[in-house]
Amino acid sequence: MDKKWAINKTDQQTAKHLNDVLRIHPALCNILAQRSITNYEDAKSYFRPQLSSLHDPFLMKDMDKAVNRLSAAFKNQEKILVFGDYDVDGTTAVSIMYQFLQKIYVPANIQFYIPHRYREGYGVSKQGIDFAKQQGITLVIALDCGIKSADLIRYAASLNINFIVCDHHLPDAELPRAAAILNPKQKDCPYPYKELCGCGVGFKLITALASRLQLPDQEYFCYLDLVATAIAADIVPITGENRTLAFYGIKKVNEDPCVGIKALIELSGFKKATLHITNLVFVIAPRVNAAGRMDDARKAVQLFIENDYKKALTFAAELHNDNDNRKEADSNITEEALEIIRNSYELTNRKSTVVYQPHWHKGVVGIVASRLIEKFYRPTIVLTQSGEIVAGSARSVPGFNLYEAIHECREHLLGYGGHFAAAGMTLLPEKVEAFSIRFEEVVSERIAPEQLIPVITIDTEIELTDIKPAFYNIICQMEPFGPDNMRPVFICKNVVDTGNSRVLKEQHIKFSLKQDNVMISGIGFNLAGKMPLLLNRQPVDIVFTIEENEWNGEKNLQLKIIDFRLSSSIEKMD
């Protein structure tokens, strides 16, 4: 699939000022300027984040109310339920809140609850509220959910159960009638940083409680490894407080992780000395999410609150097995879906994808939708049967509002929900075809042709001679990487093959490239189909990131080639 290359715009005046005060390579100053770093103090905060710079939790709307309601619960010996979503963000949030309350309150009065993905669905559930009533619980702390549960929280109030909502999703017009709502995305919330994940909001409540009780910082900083795991998994911006929390959380993962994370690392077979945020995304998060996708997410919380390493290994093994089952289901269903599309001229040539098989596992259809976008770059929905109804997950391409498109198809649906880039829906089996046709009509009407072409966003241009250990060392100091702070992507023009590049495993290319008198090696995954471009030794432009490769005890810098072509016209990003 051909890709569009686009290079970010840079405020050259800002970049020059940064070059004057920082005395680092101009290309790196370009990237810093693009990331809203304008002066020395910004750069200092960026490269050397400090936990002391975290915002006062009492700046968050209702934080006083939340702390006062918990203080009253402690005084009156009330029973408290810690309730959270079944994904990484929810289970880590529940784990840190449960452990903290166990330390400062009567352990027997604290329970946790994770709704079952298929029996109860996302968010606050009636079954969970009824459980609280049966247990004599009068206060529920909802983590990573609750902001859209006005009706259920009203039902809980009728049973004399109060809620403290800790959420980060966009509120609806009607807010739940809770004892306190902690959500920086509320329009009238003055909290300076708006992009916390659900676990991050829960962490701020813990911070506030610790402050009120005059506890030392370590009583809540000890959970930063779990907070960093949630930040990594929930794909929130790695800026501001998130970046500081992730920076120190990863430090704790490497130096003193909780036994649950330690057990997951052990069973994953991860061998590298240092873990990065990408390892949390691709090693830890899938195993935690697999518990809820394939079985019961309670075991993820049990893993994270366990203090005995041998017991933690048992829970980690269950998650590891769930993840193996998830990968097998994911692979099999993806192949079946690709086969369905490839064998249908109509499906192949649509501007959207809707595929349905009743036997597909509901827990992986969202992952499969993302996999299909990698092959057929367009809004995609994967449907399966769940009881008597059809349920599915949808994923979008950048810039296309998926939720609005599905809203236009609501006459064929029983229910739907989601946001700009991802959504879910339910419908009757007999409505699948009509829904598929209508969705294609809506997408065809609304999607711009350029949105059907994947874009590689490039930060700045460099020469091969710029790639030196000192240059790479500064890139490493830009970690942790993630949304709004991605690993820098470079372009280098007029590079030629040395004659030693070769295809690996019929899919990849092991590059050997030179520019003037500088030579460097690289790896390009799934680029073997473009190997003929190198054979005539004509100059090529390459897009890449820089990484460190270790072989036989020696470390060398190499390129991770994202794409290459003979000659290019790079378009400036708006």
Concise overview:
With 574 residues, this protein is an alpha/beta fold. The protein has 21 helices and 20 strands.
CA(first)-CA(last) distance: 24 Å
Count of beta strands: 20
Outline: globular
Which whole number gives the mean pLDDT? 94
Structural domain count: 3
Main sheet record? 5 strands, parallel
Q: Helical region count?
A: 21
The radius of gyration computed from the alpha-carbon positions, rounded to a whole number of angstroms, is 25 Å
Which CATH architecture of the largest domain? Alpha-Beta Complex
Structural class: alpha/beta
Proportion in helices = 40-55%
Strand order, largest beta sheet: 3-2-4-5-6
**The top level CATH class name of the largest domain:** Alpha Beta
CATH fold label of the largest domain: inorganic pyrophosphatase (n-terminal core)
- Poorly predicted runs are none
